[in-house]
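Lab notebook, bench 4. We co-purified these components, and the gel suggests they stay together. Before we commit to crystallization screens, I want a quick structural picture of the whole thing.
Request: model the full complex, all chains together.
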Amino acid sequence: MDAAAHAYFFGGAGREQTLAANEHAWCKDWLWPRVLATPARIDTSVTLLGRRCPTPWLAAPMAHLRLAHPQAELGLALASAAQGAGFVLSTHATVALEDVAAACRSETERGPLWFQLYPYGEREDWLRLAQRAARAGFEAIVLTVDAPVQQVPTRAREAGFTLPPAWPQPNLPAPPPRGTLEELLAQALHWDDVAWLRQRCPLPLILKGILHPADAERACAQSLCDALIVSNHGGRVLDGVPPTATALPAVSAAVRGRVPILVDSGLRYPTDVVQARALGAHAVLIGRPLLVALASGGAAAVAQLWRRWRDELAATLALLGAASLDDLPPLHTELQPMPAPNP
Amino acid sequence: MDAAAHAYFFGGAGREQTLAANEHAWCKDWLWPRVLATPARIDTSVTLLGRRCPTPWLAAPMAHLRLAHPQAELGLALASAAQGAGFVLSTHATVALEDVAAACRSETERGPLWFQLYPYGEREDWLRLAQRAARAGFEAIVLTVDAPVQQVPTRAREAGFTLPPAWPQPNLPAPPPRGTLEELLAQALHWDDVAWLRQRCPLPLILKGILHPADAERACAQSLCDALIVSNHGGRVLDGVPPTATALPAVSAAVRGRVPILVDSGLRYPTDVVQARALGAHAVLIGRPLLVALASGGAAAVAQLWRRWRDELAATLALLGAASLDDLPPLHTELQPMPAPNP
Amino acid sequence: MDAAAHAYFFGGAGREQTLAANEHAWCKDWLWPRVLATPARIDTSVTLLGRRCPTPWLAAPMAHLRLAHPQAELGLALASAAQGAGFVLSTHATVALEDVAAACRSETERGPLWFQLYPYGEREDWLRLAQRAARAGFEAIVLTVDAPVQQVPTRAREAGFTLPPAWPQPNLPAPPPRGTLEELLAQALHWDDVAWLRQRCPLPLILKGILHPADAERACAQSLCDALIVSNHGGRVLDGVPPTATALPAVSAAVRGRVPILVDSGLRYPTDVVQARALGAHAVLIGRPLLVALASGGAAAVAQLWRRWRDELAATLALLGAASLDDLPPLHTELQPMPAPNP
Amino acid sequence: MDAAAHAYFFGGAGREQTLAANEHAWCKDWLWPRVLATPARIDTSVTLLGRRCPTPWLAAPMAHLRLAHPQAELGLALASAAQGAGFVLSTHATVALEDVAAACRSETERGPLWFQLYPYGEREDWLRLAQRAARAGFEAIVLTVDAPVQQVPTRAREAGFTLPPAWPQPNLPAPPPRGTLEELLAQALHWDDVAWLRQRCPLPLILKGILHPADAERACAQSLCDALIVSNHGGRVLDGVPPTATALPAVSAAVRGRVPILVDSGLRYPTDVVQARALGAHAVLIGRPLLVALASGGAAAVAQLWRRWRDELAATLALLGAASLDDLPPLHTELQPMPAPNP
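Here is the predicted assembly.
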């Protein structure tokens, strides 16, 4: 991976304050282990959208993975399926969605296979792409709602990042919008667009990019989604927004169990997944750690990472005296809270 | 720019505690974005002294810009005017104020053009310079009140910074005072001097360098200014003074809307401007980021920076669901405050 | 010591947050010295399990010390005995326990000699090893309860750490378990195992690795130990668990004096021992500082470190106006607490 | 200055936590400047022990200055006297006290000349040395009470610091004690020693090294001193003790104006002196900044530093709207306190 691509994948917006806070915010409460009470069996599975998932995580949708490794999205999808992890294919993937779905089909213990949708073009374009994903075997549509304007991370801009010529993007619903900021804003998705798509979409609809509890409340009150993902886009869209670990409890309180909640941004270790669970998330999306693995060793390295995460999550649960994620005790904040990390 | 000039421009007083705190203090509250509610049009303009300004920022008065780039103040003024930003010319500019005003005149969408005044010499000298600025087309006088004694930043002193010989300073009201500290202090500006100038000045009078709310109260109660600028001189005059983000709400409470408030020192990203607005500022002055741009690429780089700032401010407003700065919601501190940054 | 061995000894689990917090957490309260009241004599001894110990510390059980220095556990034990420090021999030592005990026997001022037991194999295997230790002259069995699953520190894994072939481990009760995580968890120690061993063990039984006060309460209520050691295994087993300085007061409150409490993890200076005492520990175990000394100069360097620690502890007590650890005043938190260190 | 001498002068005890905290703790409250109210004249003088001092500072007693520069204590004393600063000569000076006093005598605007006494030998030895200092023209005896056991800083020990052979120490009351820690402790100074010396000493007696308010109370209640110095010996004696800025308000409250209070340790800028004044100190002692100057340029560099400090203190007072240190407003903590610096 060259320096500009690295800056593109690992950078964030503005002074990268949210990027940094995302990681630190997961260290919210100390985990108080229990001794001499190891459960005989540990179950790392969760249930999402009516289906058992062997692990509580999915690979987050990431664009342009071919910049990281020639196996690109195909390698990441296969390794995830083989290790019981879910996978979310990006609209900006460099591999056709049909090829990804076909490759994963034979893995019987695989996690969910979802398709992430950027609403380029007209409403009918989005619907056609969702139908195409459904036909291929995808199980849900993840509609990204937090990026009406997409920006390149500060450091990627300074590094002069651009996509190579003739870059393959076989899953676009329509060409991405171009033009002035005013023109881009005029095409931004609105609540009525979501309602329109929700009525017609052949798959469950998941909204990705909610931070404000009032938005979560609206999505639930109007039955506009089957699940939602608390995300700040990995700190890439707007700097200064709260880390997702900060927003998650507020969103969870607003949702009141009406839909399952997922979360991403800043999760780097299986212990972070335990923290996310304690704050209200049913499952998590993992991004940059997979990028590191993919870039360093392709699908094999990704599979090794997922396998280690599963073992480490099981070990963590065992050390906390919990047989499953549902069995986790509340984190013992009352014993002594951790000092708040500085931004 | 040589190392000594760099130390002069980017250094601060003492141990540079205020210099560092200035930047961190703008990260005061998390910005909570809203989704699916992008306004159709974004307006970045503000109204200052009865005039519409396309953007809420002005280039702060900075001395000796020729050290950074041969285009000096002329380049910075032109690029600012072209991009709808205001410009404040320093008494210590290396270009005659008439030349600056003439160059900006043709830009129809330009921001305010103000002249910053150091009160060297006698009262009549100040008045003559203000009249000269008025004749040239400047729209206000910015009287600096926080630097009765000027010091070179610690690191510039250690780097042996001095001005080159025969340095052009065509806008001085009189030669800068020289002598012992006692002699300098004896010439310091007082409240009665401001009152004298205010009565005679042909232009609106703006006081720059207020931190203490009692001073803001006095300036308003005695109608001594048309606007005031909360500033600690970029941390250059006295170390250990509060960052302006800390002083701003206290000043705003004291002013109670009687005059518009501007603020400078430490603003580095358009998101900081949103924070400043939320804390009570109507507009901001930007200094060192422009210096970096000017030094690296002259007027063209400054224009590019201003253009990006305008787009990023518009995008930020859009992501917060606000059509203009007046439309900003209160920052959602109650959802969860950021931990206080350390000095 | 090669880089992989260094990573093995000095690394921690996960992002090493607990590893780092362990050290910082001992700087809990300022020590307020008293003047002109130096006691005539300073006594650094403590009483543990009915026996006087010249110093309040023991060398913590550490595995594979031959990687650090050819004198290995024998050198560390001898130097500790010579300087009045206790010594805990690891199950994973590279020297036979009989040889260690024989070497230390002649030191009349030595501290306690304990044997640390990993419960590999069957219950009878553990008991046989405890009996063997008793016959050799060990004074207590330290049963490690916090590591049903052992992990290599993150950085050691990345450095490719493995044990050399034919590595001597003459004190294992049985071969360490191998297999899948599920198989390892199935062999984990439980409370009834401890009760079984406690009834038959010819030596006092000490539980090592308690953090949660409820576990301490259970161990005391059921009389399952003669002492307990608050430990997070030096941050090596599970990242995100509280530093021992945080857990210690909670455990101390739960134990209510029923058994003596020891603590390890992160103690680096004799002043930390004073802090540990003030938080409820009767004695401490020291690990990594001894490793540094052993690796740099073998037994001689260890003896020099212990000697300096004893002098510095005596000097610290003198400066605090205390003639012994029992004579320490409460730390004067009320005068002004230290700000909480960040994780 | 070689590396070992540098480590000796600039190091601290233990992990150097107090050494670091000393500096940060002076940044306690923001200084809120006032504008347009510059006093016509600034007076930096203070009154100490019935005598006017042109500046509120003295050079702290420092041992072995010949290691820093051949002019040693003589250079530091002369430069201080010439710039209106006080000077405290160390018992461990490398120049005879008579020579120092003679050299300073002609400076009419000099600050106080004090002699620091380490109580080596017998009571009569101390008294003889105090009488000798009085005869030479010293104005007070500074009795160090915080170092019954002297330790070399951690990093100096590691650097192998030792004094050169035949090192001149012409002011010792008796040879420094040698022997085991127990023997050193047996010779420690006690309250009755202070009372004995106080009754006979021909000069005012100042106690240096008080941190605990109870010790300050005892010294005042029994009239055992004419002034006291809040000090932690620059963080060199015991790590983990509070920074002097933390102890100072507690001591000030205990003293209730009965004797003047001085403070040292960690003051690095004239603004720190303003903070010290606001926390209850009448004057300060400056150490390491003078060492840097002496080592870099002898007496000339020291004089330049003192001159700049005097100008910067005057400028600071002017910017705060105060004509003298007595005229300082309370620091406006209520406006907004600074966040507590981390240790």
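Residues 288-319 of chain B form the longest helix (32 residues). Worth comparing against the SEC data before the next meeting. The CA atoms of residues 44 and 55 of chain B lie 5 Å apart.
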